[in-house]
Design a protein that fits this description.
By secondary structure, this protein is mainly α. It has helices at about 1-20, 25-50, 55-70, 75-85, 105-110, 110-120, 125-135, 155-180, 180-205, 225-230, 240-245, 255, 265-275, 295-305, 320-330, and strands at about 220, 315.
Amino acid sequence: MAFLALDVAIVVGLAAAAVAINQWWAWPLYWAAQGTMFWALFVVGHDCGHQSFSNNKSLNDFVGHLVHSSILVPYHGWRVSHREHHANHGHVENDESWHPVAKALYDKLEPMAKLGRLSFPWALFAYPFYLWSRSPGKVGSHFDPKSDLFTKAEEKQVLTTNAFLLGFVGVLAAMTVKIGVLPMLALYVVPYWVGVVWLDVVTYLHHHGSHDANEKIPWYRGEEWSYLRGGLSTIDRDYGIFNKVQHDIGTHVVHHLFPQIPHYNLEKATEAVKPVMGPYYRQPETSKGALPVHLVDPLVRSFTNDHFVNDTGDIVFYQTDPNFAAKTQAQTA
């Protein structure tokens, strides 16, 4: 609870400071800082979804609704799909988020779908669209209680989440009427998109782009897939000064193996299980400074080279579509 209180205090303080200063040079600093804090709030809600925020399920779900609604994330819808992600991590077809696209599906994707899902930097803005329509090859919406994401028993939970979201949208609308469109764009909308970029960068790098350019991360099907293999295919990252700001979400391997561990114990747990994982654990590359600029290379390299996997085979690796790679590189040059 103390971590949440600190996050909320920082969010309120940043907004108050930006309004008080109200200088052109201060707003970009505010957007970067507040967007980072929106991402930190998401991570608090993430722990609530895993029931690691507290020992009280009702409190976890209430806090999760508050923090996720404040950044327009459907708490129960996300919680259920994220549960599927953890249950099937590393599986080509059954994983839920940032899973690879098989060649047959890749060939059928519309150009805009390829651009929005598989190219840098456009894929870093994908999360809201994923919430509405999921990943390529999957149907349904995180907001639709009738989606095949949810069981009959979960429909009321999705409706509860939608009510929270509508309530917060009402708050945003009232604030817009009170202070105007441009101030709301500056105070909320721009930081919201910065938070989206944070979310997409971090979650993508959890499962793509080894720091070793010669290593390919395996994806599994059939009898070759197991919960342990899928968990060990995830990647820890060092985010420099942002490690604690984002509640150590970059310490991800042990989280996938034991998702009920609270974020403040992830580093200790990782050190405890390293001897057991042995060579199957990828030691994260250390940030060479305060800012994690070392992560730009694996991020861009992965988007440049990782486009699809084979339709067959129980252990597969990403392959490159040279035509798509050349096209996206030309567009971003």
